[in-house]
Amino acid sequence: MNKRVCLNCLLVIVFLLSLVGCAPGDQAGATGNEPAPAASSQPQGNTPEAEEPAKKGGDLIIAVPANLEPASFDGHIDPFQSTWLYDSFISDPLLILAPNGEYQPALAERWELSEDGKSWTFYLRDDVYFQDGTPFNAEAVKYNFERVKDPALGSAQLSDDLGPIKSVEVVDEFTVRLNYDAPWATLLDGLRRMPIWSPTAADKYDKNEFDKHLVGTGPFLFTEWVANDHVTFTRWEDYGGWNPIQNHEGPVYLNSVTIRFIGEEAVLGGVVANGNAHIAQELPAAYVVDYQDTQDATLMTGYQAGTGLQWVMNTTSPPLDQLKVRQALLYATDQDEINEILYDGLYLTQKGPLNSVHPCYWDGVETMYPFDLEKAASLLEEAGWRDENGDGIREAHGVPGVENGAPLIIRFSALHHEEIGEALQLTYKEIGIDLKVEVIPGPVQLDRVNQRDFELMYERQRSPDPRILDQIWNSKYDQPGGWAWSGLKIAEVDQLLEEIAASSDIEYRCELAKDVQRIVMENAGMLPTLSQPVYYAVDNSVKDFLLGAEGNWFFLNNAYIVD
């Protein structure tokens, strides 16, 4: 049997076992992360005298795909996961999502939700200060909430995550309360990503300049950003170990962390083996086998609960305003074959709006659209798309809003993973669809969405909370800066999503989420493809590198390098 397929089987088995339960500190979490071993297998408590904490250090180099470089490093503005990860080096959030999938206190010692679900109260640590000496207190936290919610800042997803805050109340020096007009039960999932910036520093710079001068409370100082190349963080010597992940007092061990942005897969695949980096994040599937049996590095794997690699369909204009055309695309997509051909079966196939490692996944999507090219072709015929000129591409014949004879052309717009589109291109051509694959940067993606200038647009959200469905499928977010890109407006879906946002009962919320997944797929609002595990190649000189509950999140508070 192919070694990569064996690995995939093993990962699935480990994931299923992880659902039984994990003690705090286990690598497995609510998102289904594989319990990847720590880079060091040396038992705690048996550390040689030569490796006392004072001796630990090193300059860590992490190589990542170039598309993970943020447009802005200010996570109050930038809506991407990599930004929030890098921000977590600079500033601890109020709380974290621990590797076991639980929310744990960080800058907030504890929190309370009122009985009516309309007020969140956070009790803050009283021993924290910012890297510029500014006191950390309730006023500073209030400043950050109001900054995110200020329309002039232009926050997109984070503002949405915080919800419709009515007021931010300073109860006392170290207590802050958020008030809402209606219950907002999903706040914690946004707060675990939200950096808390120094009000002094944020006031000093224009919003377009502040992302080059970020000041927080975290273990590293923001030192250097060279666009299209790297970003460097250096140890803050006065850090107080305020992240609960940290297993020692005082500053972190690492002297510095450099994130290198790599544009070539071959370079990223070999950068650890060649000794040019200590860690490669999002190791391309083709290079996974190179790190399976090596004695010099450890292969670590994390899964990402969320939407997976999905392409949202623009249902507001031809040709995807026709339900039958959208359904034809679903019947003509063979996720299993794409996974085997492109990724040797190492990815997870996905058939619906949430991937199979999400706690609220509905398995009914597995049988809704079996691969059937004849069915797909029949639906296109019924929708008025026929190949009458014999060139192999269907043309419109009596299609509303389309000139007769216009070819059936659909754009597949990707930020990355364009090879998925290229695989679909071949299959879709068999049923007369001309699929045009294009790679676009993030800013172009958002502009195209705002202009409704797309057919299939890449959109990925990651979270173990079902509220990510609300962001994508609630029609109230069909506006500039919103994430409801499909244009579907389904009253039943909107109502279900409002209930998900208001309820704190996870089982109930999951049941509602399953109904949403069913309705979205009945209306063929998106094209699901695969869910990407995050593979890390970690040089064995790196110790105590810790994956988070989400596959693309990690903690460096305890990490160090040995020669």
Describe the protein in words:
The chain is α+β, with helices and mostly antiparallel strands and 563 residues long. The protein folds into three domains: 177 residues, 3-Layer(aba) Sandwich (D-Maltodextrin-Binding Protein, domain 2), CATH 3.40.190.10; 142 residues, Dipeptide-binding Protein, domain 1 (Alpha-Beta Complex), CATH 3.90.76; 223 residues, Dipeptide-binding Protein, Domain 3 (Dipeptide-binding Protein, domain 3), CATH 3.10.105.10. The strands form seven sheets. A seven-stranded mixed beta sheet has the order 8-9-10-1-11-21-12. It has a six-stranded mixed beta sheet with strand order 14-20-13-19-17-18. A hairpin with a 6-residue loop joins strand 23 and strand 24. Helix 8 runs antiparallel to helix 10 and helix 14 runs antiparallel to helix 15.
The helix tally amounts to 15
Largest sheet: 7 strands, mixed
The portion of residues assigned to helices is 25-40%
The CATH superfamily name of the largest domain is: Dipeptide-binding Protein, Domain 3
* Estimated structural class: alpha+beta
Based on CA atoms alone, the radius of gyration comes out at 24 Å
Number of strands: 25
For the record, the CATH architecture of the largest domain stands as Roll
Strand content is 15-25%
- What gross morphology would you assign? globular
The quaternary state of the protein chains shown equals: single chain
**Mean model confidence by pLDDT:** 90
Write out the strand line-up for the largest beta sheet, numbering strands in chain order.
Answer: 8-9-10-1-11-21-12
Distance between the termini: 37 Å
CATH topology of the largest domain: Dipeptide-binding Protein, domain 3
Low-pLDDT stretches are 1-51
Return the CATH class of the largest domain. Answer: Alpha Beta
